[in-house]
């Protein structure tokens, strides 16, 4: 599932509660006294603790929605101030060989080879007006069948498009000639007005530190495109440029990693010298981050002026293990594990924890011997869905609805009743095939929907 707007914007817990409660008040004919008191307290808290947004350059780049049908590919977009003084947008496409259909063919000498052919469309539009892009007929030829199944070999295309400031739409689609399969995605891009800002920032490029090396080429060629990271993490660096308009002195830079509650996880500060265009590179610490949504924020300052740029990213299920935040990892798998399995995981000696963790999932693999563990994949797909849809003031997988969803999947029936004068909001989930029904009640009006508790009001 794609990240929700909540995950990408990452409001504070108070702001989130305010929005949820306010929406319920607006949808109710007559709010309860408890909701009115709660809204008043939240308003006071927000007025006291949340500062007024400052003027200046402050841009959040939202990752594109992934392609959901096969062939699946990765895309991303970024923008920067071009050498001619106008903004440019970079569209990037990458697909592993394992996602493509390769037809077996024979050349004129009787030798066998494998060929994949597809049409790739990459477009950038301003409303109904196409700003740039094109169609390419891509042909990939390999010598062995093993290469056609490789997940480490990729086909890439990167396009630079001159663009005007504003909100633009990027669209990328692929159509295979032989198989007839097609997939695509589109998303919005905010191109800042670099020229009118005293200080501003390009998009933030995530690169492989080792492959990027000491290269000064910008935009960088070793762009990773991902907005999801996991193990093995490798060496990840962030590159970008600062643009200044008549601002003297050095540039100070602060980067921070924030979690879903906008609480600081990591932070560091750097300083750079330079003129109107100042390149930078730093290596953020992501090694100890656990499953969930995060924000990387870069703030620069020069001559008393500030600018911010941010992007949202996720740490994937590979960060859930006995060697990385053991307590939370065990809490998560308790949703599906037996008591004996939890005891075995807890008692595993440090040197055997990785093996015990692998064994736990292998015993649930319906197709042992194949690269994928369908049970594990399904479990973490449910965890991601729960985090994106049921996270209110806590991670979605810890909520009552999240726990039930992870354990049993999507209910066949969902009945919703909004709050009224004589009652609280209620959701009823029915699993017809399992013969199960769960009643969730929004006791505090914040949208948390806890399991029904007799006698509680």
Can you walk me through this structure?
By secondary structure, the chain is an alpha+beta fold. Among the domains are: 1-52 and 371-457, no CATH class; 320-363, no CATH class. The protein is 21% helix and 37% strand. It has ten helices and 22 strands. Strands 1, 12, 14, 15, 17 and 18 form a six-stranded mixed beta sheet that branches. Strands 4, 5, 6, 8 and 9 form a five-stranded antiparallel beta sheet that branches. Strand 17 (292-302) and strand 18 (305-315) form a beta hairpin. Helix 2 (13-27) runs antiparallel to helix 3 (33-49). It starts with a helix and ends in a 6-residue tail after the last strand.
Beta-strand level of the residues, as a percent range? 35-45%
Measured between the Cα atoms of the first and last residue, the distance is 34 Å
Poorly predicted ranges? 1-54
SS-derived structural category: alpha+beta
Oligomeric state of this protein: single chain
pLDDT averaged residue by residue = 85
Helix percentage range: 10-25%
The largest β sheet comes out as: 6 strands, mixed
Q: Any idea what the radius of gyration is?
A: 25 Å
Number of DSSP-assigned strands? 22
Count of alpha and pi helical runs: 10
Shape: globular
């Amino acid at each position: 599932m794609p990240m929700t707007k909540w995950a990408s914007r990452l409001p504070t817990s108070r702001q989130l509660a305010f929005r949820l409660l306010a929406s319920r008040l607006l949808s109710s004919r007559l709010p309860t006294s408890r909701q009115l008191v709660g809204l008043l307290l939240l308003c006071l808290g927000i007025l006291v603790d949340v500062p007024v947004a400052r003027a200046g350059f402050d841009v959040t780049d939202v990752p594109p929605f992934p392609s959901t049908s096969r062939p699946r590919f990765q895309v991303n977009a970024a923008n920067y101030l071009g050498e001619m003084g106008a903004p440019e947008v970079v569209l990037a496409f990458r697909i592993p060989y394992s996602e493509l259909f390769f037809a077996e063919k024979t050349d004129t000498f009787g030798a066998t080879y494998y060929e994949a052919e597809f049409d790739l469309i990459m477009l950038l539009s301003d409303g109904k007006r196409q700003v740039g892009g094109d169609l390419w007929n891509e042909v990939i030829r390999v010598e062995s069948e093993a290469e056609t199944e490789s997940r480490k070999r990729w086909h890439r295309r990167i396009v630079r498009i001159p663009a005007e400031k504003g909100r633009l739409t990027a669209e990328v689609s692929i159509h295979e000639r032989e198989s007839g399969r097609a997939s695509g995605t589109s998303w919005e891009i905010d191109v800042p007005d670099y020229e009118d800002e005293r200080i501003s920032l390009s998009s933030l490029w995530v690169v492989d530190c080792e492959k990027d090396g000491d290269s000064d080429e910008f935009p960088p060629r070793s762009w990773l495109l991902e907005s999801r990271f996991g193990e093995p993490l490798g060496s990840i660096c962030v590159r970008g440029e600062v643009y200044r308009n008549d601002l003297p002195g050095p540039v100070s830079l602060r980067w921070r990693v924030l979690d879903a509650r906008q609480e600081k996880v990591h932070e560091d500060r750097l300083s750079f010298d330079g003129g109107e265009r100042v390149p930078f590179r730093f290596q953020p610490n992501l090694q100890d981050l656990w499953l969930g949504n995060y924000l990387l924020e870069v703030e620069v300052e020069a001559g008393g002026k500030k600018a911010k740029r941010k992007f949202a990213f996720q740490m994937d299920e590979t960060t859930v293990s006995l060697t990385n935040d053991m307590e939370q990892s065990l809490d998560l798998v308790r949703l599906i594990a037996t008591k004996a399995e939890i005891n075995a995981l807890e008692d595993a000696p440090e040197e055997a924890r990785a093996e015990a963790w692998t064994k736990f999932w292998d015993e649930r693999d319906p197709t042992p011997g194949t690269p994928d563990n369908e049970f594990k994949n399904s479990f973490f797909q449910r965890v991601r869905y729960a985090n994106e849809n049921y996270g209110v003031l806590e991670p979605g997988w810890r909520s009552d609805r999240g726990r039930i969803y992870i354990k049993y999947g999507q209910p066949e029936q969902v009945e919703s009743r909004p709050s009224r004068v004589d009652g609280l909001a209620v959701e009823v989930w029915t699993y017809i095939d399992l013969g199960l029904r769960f009643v969730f009640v929004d006791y505090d009006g914040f949208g948390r929907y806890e399991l029904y508790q007799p006698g509680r009001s």
